Amino acid sequence: MTDQTAADRMMSGKAWEDFCDALKEAGKIVQRPEVPNDPFNKALGYRFLTALLRGGLESTMHFADPQFPGFFRLADETKKLLNDNPDNYYQNCVIDGRFDYRIYGHRGTVNWFSLGSKGSSDDVAVMVDTGYIDSRNMAFNPDGSFEIIASATKQPGNWLPLAKTSRSIIVRQTFGDRKTEKIADIQIECLNPEKENNNPTPEAVERGLVGAAGFVKNIANMTIAWEEIYRQHINKLPSDDQERCQRAGGDAAIHYYQSYWKLADDECMFVHLDDIPECQTWNLQLSNYWMESLEYRFFKVSVNKHTAHYEPDGSVKIVISNRDPGPKYPNWLNTLGHGEGGMLGRYVGATVFPPEMKSKVVKLTELP
User: What percent of the chain is modeled with pLDDT above 70?
Assistant: First the structure.
C-alpha cells in the first residue's frame, strides 16, 4: 500500500472503519463452541479481547518504531495472556536486527532476569530465537549497573546476539517474593538510527491498526487451540511440548508443565512435588479459561520455590480449590470461584526434569 493510498484512507476514515470491522469480527471468537457456555466465561472472553487490544496497540503503534525503541509490557497485572507467570515482570521491545542497540540499567534485587531476541514468522504461534543472555552470565559493575550491546555483530562484554531478522526483545524478571524485591531498571537506545524523529506516517498508523486487530484475533484463537490440547489431560501436570513453548516465545531456561484444571466446588486438586530438581526457581500457577493468570494482586493463586511451605522431607504439598482447606495446607491456591481454567508449572534453570508434577483430584473432605 502506497503512502498516498494510506493518506486517502486516513482522510476518508476508511482505515478506522476497517479496524472497527476487524474488531467486530474478532468478537465472534468468544462465541466459538469450544468456549465454556456460561455468562461468566463469555464475559471474561470479551474482557480478554480488550486486554489484547491494549497490548496489541502498544506493540504495533505506540512502541513500534525500532529506531526509537522503548520497553513496554505486553503482559502485566491487567493485561494477561498464555498463562503469564505471576512471578514474572515481563517487558517487550520492538527492534530491527539491522540496527545496534545499547541496553543499560541497574541490577535491582530480583534473583534472575533474562533477555531474548526473537525473529518473526508468518505463524503467530512461532517466534524464532535469535539470541539470549541472562543475569547468570552477565557482568555487573560494583554499584549494580550494567550495559548490554545487542547487535548482529559479536561484541566484547555483555552481548545479546541479534540476527538481521530479529524483530523483538523479550525480558523476563523473576521474583522470589514479589512484595519485597525490586526489579532491574532496564532502558534501551538505538545506536545508529537513520531517521531524525519518530513521527508516524499514515501508512505506519494504518499498519498499526491492522496489526493490533490481527493480534487480538490471532492470540484469542491460539488460546482456544492451546486449551483444546491441554484439555486432553485435565487435572494432570505432564511435561509440556517444550519445542512448542519455545516457538511461542518461551524461555530456553524454563521447563514447562502446562495443563488444564476442572473442579467441582467440593473437590480439590492435590499436587505433591516430591522430586523437585536443583533449580534457580520453580512455580505453579492458576489461570482462567482464557489463560489469563488469576488475580495475583490480591489473592494467592501461585506458589514458588521461595514462598512455599516445605515438608520435613523437602517435598511440597499444594491444594488447588475454591474453598480454604485449612491450616494444615498452607500451600493453598485459590480458584476464586472459577470452575475450570489453565495452569502451568515451571522449573527454571534445572538440568534434569521429572516427567510430571504429580497430582490427583479428591474431595476436600478426603485430603490426605
Answer: 98
CATH numbers and ranges of domains, the chain:
1-62+204-223 (no CATH), 63-199 (2.60.120), 234-366 (2.60.120.600)
**Left (φ > 0), alpha (ψ -120 to 50) or beta: where does 83 sit?**
left
Q: Are 322 and 334 in contact (CB under 8 A)?
A: yes
Beta bridge partners of 281: 348
Within a 10 A sphere around the Cβ of 288, how many other Cβ atoms? 25
Grid cell 517435598 in the structure block, residue:
315
CB atoms within 10 A of CB 295: 16
Residue 125 has pLDDT above 90, yes or no: no
pLDDT recorded at residue 124: 60
Q: Record the pTM.
A: 0.94
Spell out the residues 6+ positions from residue 296 whose beta carbon is closer than 8 angstroms to its own: 77, 86, 178, 285, 302
SS3 for the chain is CCHHHHHHHHHHCHHHHHHHHHHHHHHHHHHCCCCCCCHHHHHHHHHHHHHHHHHHHHHHHHCCCCCCCCCECCCCCCCCCCCCCCCEEEEEEECCCCCCEEEEEECCCCCEEEEEEEECCCCCCCCEEEEEEEHHHCCCCCCCEEEEEEECCCCCCCEEECCCCEEEEEEEEECCCCCCCCCCEEEEEECCCCCCCCCCCHHHHHHHHHHHHHHHHHHHHHHHHHHHHHHHHECCEECCCHHHHHHCCCCCCEEEEEEEEECCCCEEEEEEECCCCCCCEEEEEEECCCCCECCCCCCCCEEECCCCCCCCCCCEEEEEECCCCCCCCCCEEECCCCCEEEEEEEEECCCCCCCEECEEEEEHHHCC
The partner residues of 93 in beta bridges, in order of sequence, read 169
pLDDT tens for each residue of 231-240: 999 999 999 9
Mean pLDDT of the chain: 95
